[in-house]
Structures are given as C-alpha cells and as structure tokens.
Amino acid sequence: MSYWILAVLVASSIVVFEGSVAWWIVPLFIIVVAWKRGHETWKRVLGIVLCVAVGLRLFLYIREVTHPSFTVDDAITGQLVLNPNQLKVNGDLVTGTATLEAGTKHEKVFFYYVLESESEQRAFLQLRQVVRVSFEGTIEEIEHARNKGNFDAKNYYLSLGVMHALKVERLNSGMKSVPGFWSFVEYLRSWLLQGVRSQKDSRMKQYTLALLLADRTGFIEEEWEQYKQLGLLHLLAISGLHISLMVACIKRLCWRIGITREKTRGLLVLFVVLYGFVIGWNISGTRAIGMVVIAAVSKPFIKKRGSTQMDCLLWMVIASILVWPGILLNIAFQLSYGLTAIIIFLSKWQRAVLPRIRANLWVPIGMSLIALPLLCQYFFYWNALSILLTALFSMLFEMLLFPLLTAYLFAVLLSFAPLIEVLTTVGEGILSGVSKVLTFCQQLSFTKFTLGIWDKWEVVLFLTILIAIGILFELRKMTIKKGVLGGLAILALLMEVPYHWGTELVMVDVEQGDSILLLAPGWNQATLIDTGGLSDFKQKEAWRHRKKKDQGITTVVPALQAEGLSELSQVMLSHGDEDHVGNLKTIAKHLTIRQLIIGKGMEKIPLMQEMKKKYPKIQWRLVLTGDEWKWNETTWKVLWPKGLSHAENEDSILALVTVMKQTILLTGDASEKVEEAVVQANPNLRFSILKAGHHGSRTSSGEALLKLVQPRLAFISCGKHNHYGHPSPETLARLKATGAIIFRTDQDGQIRLRFTREKLEVTTRLTKRKKELKQ
C-alpha cells in the first residue's frame, strides 16, 4: 500500500503547490509500480478507491479555494464566533482566527480589530469561553510573502482553512457565550492555560506552556531564535517526543498493575484523544496522537511482527489530506511529518544495512543531511552543532525535562505552592544552564553554514545523489572510491547552492523605508544600500501601545539569508533616518559586514559611534562628491553630498552605480533642490534606472532631473497604505511622462532586476509582473 499512498501524496502536492503538467509523470509512474507490485486484488482495489477518494477531495478543495463564500472588498454585517485560545491582544489591536457567519454563509477568517477603549481591551483579555458577537466589517485579501524568505501569510492561513482577512470596523453587541461540547472543551483548555500563565514568570512556565500545552505565546523570542540558529527548532516542531514518553509511561504503569495489553491499548487511545483537546489539536501533536491511535486500533489485525510506524504515518498523511489538502502548505506539517518519516526510514535502514553503527549517532546525522533542503527552505542555514545538540537535547528532555515539566504542570493543577516553588527553582537552574550552553554555541559562527533557499533542480540532484548512495549500500556494492565520489558530489553541490552566477539588484520591501541589495557573482558578494527600519509612532495612551517585532529579524535578515548570504561586502547608508538605518544593528548581529560606506561627517552620530565600538573589524569609507571606486563588476561614483553630512535628507548620498551597460542612480531621500544642484554640476549626467527619491514624495524626482535624463525604469520603495500618501500623484505623473516603466514595492512587493549581456529582466514577488528589456 505504501506505493499507492506515495502516489496520492505526490499528486496532492502537485495540486496544492501548482506544479506543472510534466510533474504528473511522477505519480502516474508510482501508480503503475503499485499496480505491478500489488499482487493481491484487495490492495489494488483499495489503492484505486484511495486515489478516487483523494481526487474528489482535491476537486472540492479547489472549488472551496476558487469559489469562497465571500469576496474581497465585500462590506459584511454578521456575527463572529470567537475562541479565546485563538485570539491575541497586542495593545489596542486584537487579532486571531474566527468563524464568520452572515446569513446562510459562513467562513473561517483571520480578523483584526482596533479596540476603542481600555475596558474593551480588558474584556478580551479576560475572555475564557467561546462567544458570539455581532459586527460590521470588510473582507480583505491575505497576501503572499512580499519578500523571498519572509513569512508567507497566504499559505499559512490557507493551510488552516482560512481564505480571507476580515477588518472589523465596529462591534455592535456584547459577547454571548456559545453552548455545546466544543465550547466546553475550549473553556477547560483556556482554564488550564490561564492556570499556568498566572504563575510567576520563569523558564519552567514558558517551557511547560510551549512543550506540553502547545502554547508559545509566552516563550522568550531570544531563546526561540537560539533554537532556530542552532538547528533545534525542527526538533521542537516534531513535537511528538513528549507524547511518545507519555505513552511509554502509561504502558509500563498499566502492565505493572496487571492491566491486559488489550485494555491498555484502549486506555492509551482514550488518553491521547483527551490530550489532543488539551493541546488544541495542533498539527504536530495531532500527527503523534494519530499514529498512536492507528497503531493501537490496527494491532489486532496485523499478523506479521515488526514496526508499523511508517504505515501509521502514511495513513495519517492521507487522513490529513482528506480533511483539508491545504495542510500540505503548512511548515509545521512539512517538518513534523517529513522529519518523522526520515527518522523512521533511517532507523529501519540502519538496522538492515549498517547494524554496527549506533542509531543515536547515525539518525541525527542522516536526518540533518536528508532534510537539508527542507530546513533551508525555512531557516536558510545549517549548523553543524545541530547533530550533537539534537542528540543531547533529546536525552535531556527524556531523562530530566519531561519529568520536571510534567510534575510542574500537575503541581499547578493541584495548586501545590511548595512543590511549584521547588520545581521552579530546580528547573530554572537547569534551563538557565541550557540557555548558557546554547548562547555559547550560538557564538561559534564557524559551525554555521548559510545556504539559502535551494532551486528545484538542486533539490532533485541532491536527493538523487543520496538515493544512489543508499542503493549502493543496500546492494553491498559501496566501495571507498564510490563513497569518496559521492561525498565530493554532495560537497560540490552544497558549495554551489549559495554561489551567485550573475548580477542582480533586489529592492527589498521594507514598508515605508529603503533597502536595496546588489548581488554580484561569487560567494557572499553583496552590497546593501540602506537597511530599512520602522519609525516608532508612539501612542498617547499607554494601553494602546503595541509590541512591535524587529523588522530586521522578520524581514531584512531573512531576505538576505534566503539569498545564501552570511556576509555583506559593503553596506552603504544614504543618510541617518530611522527608515534607512534602523535595521543596521540587527543585520550586523546576524551577518558579517566588511565595509560601511557613509557620507563624511555622518560617523559622528550615535549609531555610528556604537557600531565602531561594537564591531572594530568593520572598514569605513567616508565619501564626498567625486569619490569613485570599483567593486566586483560594478563601478561607483558619488555625486552628493558636497560637504560634511549631518545624516539628514539633504545630505543623502546620491551615487551612480554602473553594472554592465546600465547605470543606476541611487537617491536616498534627496529633494528636488539637491537634484538640481547635481544636475548643474553634471550637465552630461546619464542613467537608465532611477531609484525614485524619498519614497516617491512630490518634493523629489523633479523636473530638472527627469528632463535631463529619461530613465527606462523607475523603482519606488514605499509602504502599503503609508501615512504620507507616497508615492504622490505628481511624482507618478512626472515619471510616466518620461516613458519610464514604474515598479513600486507597495504594490509589487520585492522587485528583482537581473542583468545579463543581452537583456534586463525585472520580476516582482507579489504581483508576478515580468518585463524584459534589451541592453
């Protein structure tokens, strides 16, 4: 049956990920193999039934996605069913998923609502039960990732069955509780979570919530980032380790007190199902619970001995697809199911082929290697320490943390304060030590290899090499020479993945700010012009203040690492505004900066003084009008500022960058007055690509500049629905009058320009626009 299930999985993936027609050869080939290998009629019949059932489900899935109950820009008056465990209150903003009901229509939506009063905020914070509330609002589109490597909200919410966002403009009534079994279960879960959350802040509290109750809202972001950088985040994503330990403990306890194996299986099924309600049936927990249930139910019908874990996992995949095929888009699904499959496969393969090698050594190595393309898809790098740390953390969790966290949870439920205090003290010491070890390991930069997101052909070639090596081992035909060749092939491919073969200019969408990446051929050959950064608009009232995520962490650093960058050859800062330099410290923390280029005089501002002290190895280039230099295959010439820079808009660096036959004018936030001065000083100024000044403000990209030079392309970096109304209609009109093709980050998302000897190719991330121009 494995071949039939594999064919169904591949076909489902093609539908969900919109694969090309040519990819359908793969599932068809697997079906033919399954038909030939399935000598028993019942297997063939079951396989065909399975294919038909999943085919119908995929058909319904496509209809649901393409013909939702509501359409974008619809004004809606209806009711929202709110689950307290799916809401988040951040200052005066409430967000979460909810069920929208309007007449006979209903749909699961992501909603957001700006609170009108502090009392309304308290009502949401104190919400403990499922409620229904009337509202007025507007249906909106959920966007895909605006930059390569950034969080893809569209795919994430689609994987949860959410197809639209809802802007709630007004709540028209009080909250009314919703009766029923589901509401009662959510109330109990909310009560349990609140019981743990009400304890004093400690690592025991946050680890108990995250690992046992599947609630990461209180987990310290810095520690979560440590797990990510050290390759341990995927271990937490598997999230079935504690369920396996729970099942093992219950089995031993039942057998000790004389309960039969048959009754023990029944008790296990009951326990894990109840635990599923406790953790809210999150994806990774559901996978582990489902495997336990399937194994227990199918046990009496399986005659042959041996592990059936892979069968259980495959059937769970089929069940998940039948419930909602879009779940294939979810990162938790891909990591949990994918890594579990790799672990099961490696364990069986190792026992059959490499019996002399210890499993606890081989499995982490094999898992890290096989899963490398998948891990790089979301984390962009691999840490060699992850092999050792995965094994050590698994042992630590099994032998020490799991008993401690479980005891802590029961102590909280029983309100046994003395035991809570003791466990908190002991756990804090252990987890504090773990954090220090992780911090030390995190500082060992030589163990971290940034590969970036792999191309499809690289993934296929990588897996082909691994499969070939595996087949040679199984056939006992592996020799030292073949092993060396296989190792060299893998090493060569891993070196090729982060290598850039051409020159590209990437305008990163940093909302209302600037950040432009220039990539050149080679490894880590990149220049970043400005870093972006969010300006802090402080609220008048304290209760309205929202906690903001660091844009450097969420947007710019992932966009750079997704390109395979661990270093930046140059970082040029046009001037000192927050939306141009605000992410500099975060970038410097995660990537090595070789050289900083700023206007002469700007080195005196506090940010630059801090950078000098903290990063003494960075080289500094202080520039003025007339300075020129070459970097890789590009030539740079500074046109402004003439005098010392005070890091203000009028001191913005204006630079001409020549790439092959094209010249790009970088303008920072310079005004028309500066442009006019540059035009007077450079009457023969020529460029083909313009980065519009000051985010498309009406006071930049003026007549003097555009009359002298009529650029072929104009790029505008500005935020969607920004406070300033950028780009201004006047600026757009001036640019259109020159015949320039305009690209805007607020509409197009990330913009990528590829340079070749024959042509320029512009592509956009969000709108999928594509334009080719001859050199």
Q: How is the topology of this model organized?
A:
Blueprint: H1 2-16, H2 25-37, H3 41-66, E1 75-90, E2 93-102, E3 105-114, H4 118-125, E4 131-140, H5 153-159, E5 164-171, E6 176-177, H6 181-197, H7 203-212, H8 221-229, H9 233-238, H10 241-256, H11 261-278, H12 283-298, H13 309-323, H14 331-353, H15 359-370, H16 372-379, E7 381-383, H17 385-413, H18 417-442, E8 448-450, H19 456-474, H20 480-496, E9 503-507, E10 516-519, E11 526-529, H21 551-561, E12 567-568, E13 570-572, H22 578-581, H23 584-590, E14 592-593, E15 595-599, H24 606-614, E16 619-623, E17 628-631, E18 634-640, E19 654-659, E20 662-666, H25 672-681, E21 689-691, H26 703-708, E22 713-716, H27 729-737, E23 741-744, H28 745-748, E24 751-755, E25 759-764, E26 770-774
Parallel strand pairs: 3-5, 11-13, 12-14, 13-15, 15-16, 20-21, 21-22, 22-23
Antiparallel strand pairs: 1-2, 1-4, 2-3, 4-5, 4-6, 7-8, 9-10, 9-24, 10-11, 17-18, 18-19, 19-20, 24-25, 25-26
